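Continuing the series of single-chain predictions for the mutant panel. This is the parent chain; the variants come on the following pages.
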Amino acid sequence: MAQKAGTKKLLVGVVFILLIGASVVAGITLDRLVALKIIDKYFPSKFGQNIVGQKIVNEESMVIDVADKASPSVVTVSMQTLKQQYLQFSPFGGFTQGTTGGEDQDIGTGFVVSSEGLIVTNKHVVSDTTAIYKVITKDDKEYDVVEINRDPNNDIAIIKIEATGLTPIELGDSSNLKVGQFVVAIGTALGEFRHTVTTGVISGLGRGITAGSYYEGYVERLDNVIQTDAAINAGNSGGPLLDSSGQVIGINVAVAQGANNIGFAIPVNVVKEALNEFNTTGKFEGRAFLGVKYQAIPQSTAILNNVPQGMYVVEVVAGSPAEEAGVAAGDIITKIDGQGVTEETSLSDVISKKKPGDKMSFEVWRNGETSTLEATLSEVQE
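Parent structure:
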């Protein structure tokens, strides 16, 4: 009799447990259908809409945090246009004289790297040596630019304003970036909309581009730049490209013409090297100069003309290191620093990796004879 009673109690217990389990499952199922918040508290969903919603909330919060952290360090660079006189025909007879220009125009972006008023921007933003520049901070304070230092080797400039107590931005590390990494850009979009925040990802690494415009008189080859689909427009130049922690990983420099959401940024490690050089010496080291104009001779052309493959020297600049070394127009450079010249070899790329005072050796072919010359590079006179 006692055994039957025990079996009955066991069955009741099992049924009770099954009922509780069924109730819990039913409740969770109902919650997923009608989104009961109380169930979410104890049984958070790991599927479907709630995961998407959580991801959106996290990403949105991250962008807000990055913008709040970095924006006080981002500035707008403004240029004052020159006043010009003009004559205008008067309906009352004769001409009247008027004035145009003299107004401030936002042209780019920069970011604070020292509380004592040092700001990084692009060299092409402040390329006009006759212009008057200003800096406008996030709280709309205006400062005159009192000094501009342009890096001759990169599209980077350091500008100085008379200010203290500024908030320097945090510089990150661009050596381990990954394609697909989330990024935020801040800048004065289109030279009109200050502190515009856009988001995207790193869409490519190690790109080579030509920045500037032949028609504007400024063109520079930039290698190993970051490609991003974060919206970058005219006026964003010089502004920071930030990672999810709010650290600068690049300086926005250019957009691809005729494309949507293809922008480029100089890696921040290049900026850090330039800053270290500037902080150590108070200036940027000049660009190395050889002084030759040349034209590449591909292998097919060399065979047809019975000459060696290399670089045909079109012109030698008077008084240049090349002239002093004995290089002459009509020479064919076949080796540089002991390395043979190929169709892919660029003399300008080789020189860009050297400093004023460095030596370069050349093997040149002249009238059927080969000789070795050595030049000591000088500094480009900007």
